[in-house]
Amino acid sequence: MIRVLMVDDDPVILDLTTIFLERSGDITIDTVQSPSKAIEKLDTAYYDVIISDYRMPEMNGITFLKTVRARGLDIPFILFTGRGREEVVIEALNNGADYYLQKDSDPEVLFTELSHQVRQAVERKRAEKALQESEERYRTFVRNVRGIAFRWNPDRTILFLHGTVKEITGYAEEDLIAGTLQWVDIIHPDDRAQLEDKFERSRSVPNYSATHTYRIVCKDGEVRWVHEAVHNICDESGNPIGVEGTIHDITDRIRAHEQILAERDLGLRLSEITSLEEALELCVRTAIKVSGMDCGSVYLVNMEQNNLELAYTTGLSREFIEAVSGSKRDLKKLRSNRSARPVYISYHDKSLPRQSAREREGIRAMAVVPIFHGEQTMGYYSVGSHTVDDVPSYNRDALETVAAITGNAVARIQTTEAIDETKKEIRALFSSLQDFLFVLDLEGRILSVNGAVEPRLGYALDELLGRYVFEFHPPARNEE
Question: Full-prediction pTM beyond 0.85?
Answer without folding.
Answer: no
